[in-house]
Write a structure and sequence with these properties.
The complex is a heterodimer of chains A (about 190) and B (about 525).
Chain A lengths: L2 H21 L24 H11 L7 H11 L5 H15 L1 H8 L10 H12 L4 H19 L16 E2 L19 E2 L3
Antiparallel strand pairs in A: 1-2
Helix pairs in contact in A: 1-4, 2-3, 2-7, 3-7, 6-7
Chain B lengths: L6 E4 L7 E10 L3 H12 L4 E4 L14 H8 L13 E3 L15 E2 L4 H10 L7 H14 L2 E3 L7 H12 L5 E2 L1 E3 L25 H7 L3 E4 L1 E9 L2 E10 L6 E15 L5 H8 L13 E2 L3 E7 L14 E3 L11 E5 L4 H7 L4 H8 L5 E8 L11 E4 L5 E4 L4 H20 L4 E3 L7 E2 L20 E3 L3 E2 L25 E3 L14 H20 L1
The chains are: A mainly alpha (about 190), B alpha/beta (about 525).
Chain lengths: ~190, ~525
């Protein structure tokens, strides 16, 4: 799949939204009750509940809070190129889109209104799709949610990971215009 | 026109626009740029290095994945090929990829350099001319071979499996001094044991008078006629996200692009650099990696100890088929979670067995067959690089063969199960299952593919029709005072972990260039 193909996800999603509205399907709104707990950086308000629903399925079996995972994914996406940010938002809206669901997996229900088993089936339909861009979208969402949980200390006990072996002094917090370099080496315990 | 003081200036702290003159502006402070900066500064030239990454030092290297990946990797470790099929791990910091690599050092194999000369129009670089420069790098970076007793359990499974199968295998050489085996090479060394550019050639260059401007994003190189006259960029904030509003203009006599594969061609493309032969961005290689997960009935704890300390090149030379070399990969939670297939309860269940997992990597060697031409870098409407990397049938065959071989190594090392990198994976419980690898789907986004080695895209060749720059000193074929010195020069992948190849070639070309510029 080329970059231009991936962008077609957005175009495709936009087209579906327009056509679906004409058919009444696009007007079928999903569950918007989940709200962000802190300001969003990249993900749109409309896509956020979809990301939360995806995060809930992807991180099932862990201690992760789906809302917190979605917030962290949004924060991680700040570092991604602008086009990737836009693509990801469109992918979430496409997953939620009722007409998209009808055409891509034969089910005209917004993702957030599906029961858990059908949500898993919807995600696997993209994973196993013959369309490379949908497989790529599946893995993009999957990896972002997994990384958001497993990068943090929240997961360490679950996977018997001991965490850092050295005790180091916490450096000064980063801020936009301050130096990153720490001029005096912090004292550390456990250093060789 | 001002000058910068020697040392690192963090551009996010500047309040006023900067316009400075110098002999040489080097774009990028990784293995290519740092070595070149040290050589040229020591030759008495005034050198300014501009670097988009931040000036992170060991005080901020706290062995944490959530702090390392957003700040020390390109795109916050979210870089991929355009089709999302290959995840690209590429460093971004003062010191570049050397800050986060896994310290494995191999000289460029002789037959690879011979191939460059035979097929890619290179006559001013050969094994004899490179040899002393590898020697210099090995001494400066304290490269030494890992004793077998220091090999961790994860790497030991590679040793045990390969040895049982009578494959060629050895411990690796590493650029470390006083290594405490924390296992965090990929997160920035917490004790400065890794002899990265951050603690070697960057300080060498500064000691000789060089200035380094971090958090400076280069917009373009400006040309007048056949000469580069300025490097234009802007300061970005400490997080690497937004502009601070400070404009940066460097007016050097010579421009050297050392931003690494993918970024070096992208900078030249968005600058409108002459490209009459259309070679800019072509032949970009990534050593595509397929992974194998071996599950043992005993703790492996693959997060402990040097991430890479054993390698087998038994399958590196396969004639008409694409070869690979086998190494281990560290098993930290985040990195493993994204490589581990599946989601939900199946995934979290697998993650609970992480302590017993060994991760084996088949690093395939691209660019050595006529149909394996690598990828092409272009830039999008934002000027950001896009890597299009079609995987050809010969490579898919190699991935399949490597996956089978890694399963054999895993079982030979005592694994009770081996999983392929597919989603969903093939779970093998004995050697009898290995043949089933042939039945798995081999297509983009059906199997995990990774890259930690990026090469090419500004290929060197003394033949103007083939190369972007000449091999003698990395000078651009059409712009008199523009050079490229970094891993983007390689006409093929190097078939080994590439850092030493970059150090050696960069030191050779920079030494030659110093003579020219001093004349």
């Amino acid at each position: 799949m080329q970059r231009r193909s991936f962008l077609k996800v957005g175009l495709f999603g936009g087209l579906l939204l327009a056509v679906g509205a004409g058919l009444g399907l696009g007007l079928r709104q999903g569950d918007r009750s989940v709200r962000p707990t802190r300001a969003l950086n990249v993900i749109s308000e409309a896509a956020f509940p979809v990301l939360v629903a995806v995060a809930a399925r992807v991180t099932r079996g862990t201690s992760a809070s789906p809302v917190e995972i979605a917030q962290r994914v949004d924060e991680a996406l700040r570092f991604a190129p602008r086009q990737s940010q836009q693509d990801l938002d469109r992918v979430l809206l496409l997953l939620e889109n009722a007409l998209g669901g009808l055409l891509l997996r034969g089910q005209g229900t917004p993702f957030t209104l599906l029961d858990e088993g059908d949500q898993d089936a919807a995600l696997m339909a993209w994973r196993d799709s013959s369309v490379g861009l949908l497989r790529g979208a599946h893995h993009g969402l999957r990896k972002l949610c997994l990384a958001a949980h497993y990068a943090s200390a929240d997961c360490w006990a679950e996977v018997a990971y001991p965490g850092p072996s050295l005790t180091k002094t916490v450096p000064p917090p980063m801020s936009a215009r301050a130096p990153l370099a720490v001029t005096e080496a912090p004292s550390a315990e456990g250093m060789p | 026109m001002k000058t910068l003081l020697p040392g690192v200036t963090e551009a996010q702290t500047l309040n006023d626009d900067v316009e400075v003159g110098c002999d040489v502006c080097i774009i990028g402070s990784g293995p290519g740029g740092a070595v070149t900066a040290a050589v040229l500064a020591q030759a008495g030239l005034s050198v300014v290095v501009v670097e988009e990454g931040g000036y992170f030092t060991k005080a901020r290297f706290r062995q944490r994945e959530d702090e390392a990946y957003p700040y020390l990797y390109q795109d916050g470790a979210q870089r991929t090929t355009a089709d999302l099929a290959i995840t690209i791990m590429q460093g971004k910091a003062v010191g570049g990829g050397s800050v986060v690599n896994w310290t494995t050092c191999f000289r460029t194999p002789d037959d690879v350099v011979d191939g460059w000369r035979a097929k890619h129009g290179i006559n001013s670089v050969d094994n004899a001319s490179l040899k002393p420069h590898f020697g210099w790098a090995e001494e400066r970076l304290s490269v030494n071979q890992t004793p077998l007793e220091l090999v961790n359990k994860n790497n030991r499974t590679v040793w045990d499996g390969a040895t049982a199968l009578r494959h060629d295998v050895d411990t690796t050489h590493r650029n470390v001094l006083g290594c405490a085996q924390t296992g965090n090479c990929g997160h920035g060394c917490p004790i400065d044991a890794k002899q990265s550019m951050l603690v070697t050639c960057i300080p060498d260059a500064i000691k000789a008078g060089a200035s380094v401007l971090s958090r400076c994003r280069v917009d373009k190189v400006v040309y007048e006629g056949s000469r580069a006259v300025a490097v234009v960029g802007h300061a970005i904030d400490a997080f690497g996200l937004g502009r601070t509003g400070v404009a940066i203009t460097i007016k050097p006599r010579t421009v050297i692009v050392s931003a690494g594969a993918i970024n070096s061609p992208a900078i030249l493309l968005r600058s409108g650099t002459p490209n009459d032969n259309g070679r800019l961005g072509k032949r970009t290689f990534v050593h595509p990696v397929v992974a194998s997960i071996s599950l043992f009935d005993k703790p492996i704890e693959g997060w402990k100890g040097a991430p890479q300390s054993v390698a087998s090149h038994h399958h590196a030379r396969r004639g008409e088929e694409v070869g690979w070399f086998l190494e281990a990969g560290p098993v930290h939670p985040m990195l493993s979670s994204t490589a581990m297939p599946g989601f939900g309860a199946g995934h979290s269940g697998a993650m609970k067995q992480l302590a017993n997992v060994a991760a084996h990597l088949a690093i395939t060697i691209d660019g050595h067959h006529d149909d394996v031409v690598g990828g092409t870098v272009t830039v999008n409407s934002d000027g950001a690089p896009v890597l299009d990397y079609p995987i050809v049938e010969r490579q898919w065959r190699s991935f399949r063969d490597a996956q089978k071989s890694m399963a054999q190594v895993g079982f030979a090392a005592g694994a009770k199960e081996v999983w392929t990198g597919h989603d969903p994976p093939l779970h093998m419980t004995s050697l009898n299952d290995v043949a089933r690898v042939d039945t798995m789907p081999w297509a983009p986004c059906r199997v995990g593919i990774f890259s930690a080695h990026q090469m090419g895209g500004c290929m060197m060749s003394d033949d103007k029709k083939l190369g972007v720059v000449r091999a003698e000193d990395g000078r651009h074929h059409e712009v008199d005072n523009l050079h490229v010195i970094d891993g983007s020069l390689f006409p093929t992948s190097v078939g080994v972990n590439p850092q030493m190849s970059i150090y050696g070639l960069s030191h050779l070309l920079a030494t030659r260039l110093a003579h020219t510029l001093k004349a």
